[in-house]
Design a protein that fits this description.
Blueprint: H1 3-14, E1 18-24, H2 30-43, E2 48-51, H3 62-73, H4 78-89, E3 96-100, H5 102-108, H6 110-120, E4 124-127, H7 136-142, E5 148-149, E6 151-153, H8 159-168, E7 173-176, H9 189-202, E8 207-210, H10 216-223, E9 228-231, H11 233-242, H12 248-263
Parallel strand pairs: 1-2, 1-9, 2-3, 3-4, 4-5, 6-7, 7-8, 8-9
Length: 265
């Protein structure tokens, strides 16, 4: 059983919703990112999405775009992100999902990347610009590993396609709650409740919901019907505000504790 499967199984036993925060690796530094991962895990994060910085993050709004720019400005590379995962695994088994775009992986070398990611202890990949029809580009190498390729679905996904992709999904499904980019709008939970409940009816893996979740109230509302809630821009804003100051880790921990408390039934 993978770390992701074991985590969601344990949460189901406790009737808890998964808290899945997103941060960008290398923002504000790789050393601080390592501390942030341990802080997130200790404060209640169940799975962590770790952004791989990219110069053209077309699915991300200004907040996460800026985080990528800050990370790239200090020289963060894919190899360093993988080394960061290796460091995390020395003391922490929290599930880690590398989230980003296919271009840096292609440049690194897809086969080499998968091999190195598996060795580092990566649990899953979430590549927002790699459609399922082209996923064999990387799936051909993932099949011999325990790394899941997370499926992205959205309100605009046709029902037949959603059913087909959900049936083949691994790890968990990331349901994008709205069209547009990250951090641009607030979520309207009741607008997506029926769609998420329907999706859960034919999905073989848990369904997490992201985009627009920025407060404990948002998380509570979505957590009432989703298996997981993904929080990105709101957390990245805290990291941007406090940078490498002594307040950063306590403020991040406080935010995560509040979010987790809001989704525990």
């Amino acid at each position: 059983m993978s770390r992701i499967e074991a985590t969601f199984a344990a949460l189901e036993q406790r009737k808890e919703t998964a808290l899945i925060p997103f941060i960008t690796a290398g923002d504000p530094s790789l050393e601080t990112t390592l501390e942030l991962i341990h802080t997130l895990s200790s404060a209640g994060a169940d799975v962590i999405e770790l952004g791989m910085p990219f110069s053209d993050p077309m699915a991300d709004g200004p907040t996460i775009q800026a985080a990528s720019e800050r990370s790239l400005a200090v020289g963060t590379t894919i190899a360093q992100v993988l080394q960061l995962v290796t460091e995390v695994r020395k003391t922490n088994q929290v599930p880690l999902v590398l989230m980003g775009y296919y271009n840096p992986i292609f440049h690194y070398g897809t086969e080499r990347f998968v091999k190195d990611a598996a060795a580092a202890g990566v649990d899953a990949l979430l590549l927002v610009d790699l459609p399922p029809e082209e996923a064999d580009e990387i799936n051909q190498y993932l099949v011999s590993t325990e790394i899941d390729l997370i499926t992205l679905l959205a309100p605009t996904t046709p029902v037949e396609r959603m059913q087909r992709l959900a049936a083949a999904a691994k790890g968990y499904i990331y349901y994008v709650s709205m069209t547009g980019v990250t951090g641009a709008q607030k979520i309207a939970p009741e607008d997506i409740r029926a769609a998420v409940v329907e999706l859960k009816g034919y999905a073989k893996v848990p369904v997490g919901v992201g985009f627009g979740i920025s407060t404990a109230a948002d998380a509570s509302a979505v957590g009432a019907f989703a298996d997981g809630v993904v929080v990105g821009s709101a957390l990245v804003k805290i990291i941007e505000k406090y940078g490498q100051s002594e307040q950063l880790l306590p403020e991040v921990a406080k935010f995560i504790v509040e979010l987790k408390a809001s989704i525990v039934s």
